[in-house]
Amino acid sequence: MAQQVANVWWGMFAFATLVLVAVSAIWIYALARKPRKTSDEDAIRINRRWVIGGGIVLPSLSIIVLLIFGIPTGRSMMPLPVEGEQPLKVEVTGHQWWWEVHYPDSGVTTANQLIIPAGRLVDVQVSSADVIHSFWIPRLGGKMDMLPGRTNVIRIQAGHTGVFHGQCSEFCGLQHTHMKLHVEAMEQADFDGWIAARENLRFTAGAPGEAGQVFDDRCGQCHRVAGLSEGGRAPDLTDLATRPSLGAGVIDNDSEGLRRWLREHKDLKFGNAMPSHDDIPPQTLDQMADWLETLAP
Ligand code: HEC
Ligand SMILES: [Cu+2]
């Protein structure tokens, strides 16, 4: 779809360049030529010719040509019925300031990463839990507003495997910039494996010692870890260790990053909705970080 959008853009660019060159040439010619005597009637006639030709016929033709190419491109991004293999459904919900990603067919939930099979159509059902956000993966095509209380659908298709970058593109508050989405297209078989690994993933052992208590009392109220807590107000942490970044792109997700996030998340991402952990002893936070690093299939 992005390829088609790009083609339409280049076509418009070429045509606009032609018009610019033509108008400039006529303008230079008009400046350079000697004035001729024209009768009033002739002047009106010439005038009218330019208004009708240049002002009505040319723009109408250009718009018709543009629509001939533009409408099919727009339609290819709409979730119209297709024959054969059905598009994969994914629900993406915008939150201030992170992305909830849910695969309704398998019940898998993750956050701040959208994994899709390359080559297959994907219908992304976008919505919002709070304010208006906008779903945009520039290299995969158009954008779609994410509105609270309404579900919009945008169809995407990655032509090849690889990593693409998504970004919220509707100003949604302080940390709008720090609302990045990691998008990865995999071979269908790898994608199936990715889903299968998460489908029945349940943890039985919580964090050890103090950290376990803190998790049950606090973290688990907002965060879900399959098998341990059902919090739904914050990123699902079940596959946390497999994600490339924390805080929707604020910091790399490694041992160091995780420790920093738990201690300094208020500085790293000012205003984010997670309460400060200043009252939790550093060693408990480190214990927590060690355990969070094990949350993976
Ligand atoms: C009031 C709800 C709330 C509580 C309680 C809470 N968090 Fe969070 N947490 C959030 C929100 C919201 C985010 C996402 C912030 C953002 O990126 O804007 C978050 C983000 C995170 C992340 C990064 C996740 C990611 O994928 O980027 C980790 C890790 C995390 N919290 C761990 C914890 C731990 C450990 C505790 C308990 C000590 C805790 N949280 C308590 C709401 C909460
Ligand atoms: Cu935003």
TrEMBL record:
The chain crosses the membrane at residues 6-29, 50-71. It is found in: Membrane. Keywords: Copper, Electron transport, Heme, Iron, Membrane, Metal-binding, Respiratory chain, Transmembrane, Transmembrane helix, Transport. InterPro entries: CcO_II, CcO_II-like_C, Copper_CuA, Cupredoxin, CuRO_CcO_Caa3_II, Cyt_c-like_dom, Cyt_c-like_dom_sf, Cyt_c_oxidase_su2. Belongs to the cytochrome c oxidase subunit 2 family. NCBIfam families: CoxB (TIGR02866). This is Cytochrome aa3 subunit 2. It comes from Stutzerimonas marianensis. The lineage of its organism: Bacteria, Pseudomonadati, Pseudomonadota, Gammaproteobacteria, Pseudomonadales.
